[in-house]
Design goal:
By secondary structure, this protein is an alpha/beta fold. It has a single domain, classed as Dehydroquinase, class II (Rossmann fold, 3-Layer(aba) Sandwich). It contains five helices and five strands; from the N terminus they run E-H-H-E-H-E-H-E-E-H. The protein has a five-stranded parallel sheet, with helices on both faces. Helix 2 runs parallel beside helix 5 and helix 3 runs parallel beside helix 4.
């Protein structure tokens, strides 16, 4: 069965209370529940994780090789700063979709730069929590086309 890893980076554990005007009021637990329902409907296995540590994100990406068929990554602010995350994604040779709750291109200029998008098959941003479902649909479609 197809397996997809959804990996969330720094500060996403605070969803629902952190800047709700930007990120909404949906919690990360709500998003995980929503994703599990969608994954079941798509007949895919789902792993869902969050960490505030760049090193832990890299370790989880490395562990995905051979365990998952694709990665959906909301790297938070590491998107704009981490060459190490980009290198880890390149190293595992799995398709990745970059995901953001807000439209990073409509925000501060420093958020327009993404190291993740350079190695991603696509980017989904600006759709709030619904973006996670869109990313699952997109990853399943990508994997089916690549098979």
């Amino acid at each position: 069965m197809t397996s997809i890893l959804i990996l969330n980076g720094p500060n996403l554990n605070l969803l629902g209370t952190r800047q709700p005007q930007v990120y909404g009021t949906t919690t990360l637990a709500d998003i995980e529940t929503m994703c599990r329902v969608r994954a079941k409907a798509l007949s895919v296995d789902l792993a869902f994780d969050q960490t505030n540590s760049e090193g832990a994100l890299i370790d989880t990406i490395h562990a995905a090789r051979g365990a998952h068929d694709g990665i959906i990554l909301n790297a938070g602010a590491y998107t704009h700063t981490s060459i190490a995350l980009m290198d880890a994604l390149t190293s595992v040779e799995l398709p990745v979709i970059e995901l953001h709750l807000s439209n990073i291109h409509a925000r501060e200029t420093f958020r327009h730069q993404s190291y993740i998008s350079k190695v991603a098959v696509g980017v989904i941003c600006g759709f709030g929590a619904q973006g996670y479902e869109l990313a699952l649909d997109a990853m399943v479609g990508h994997l089916e086309r690549a098979a």
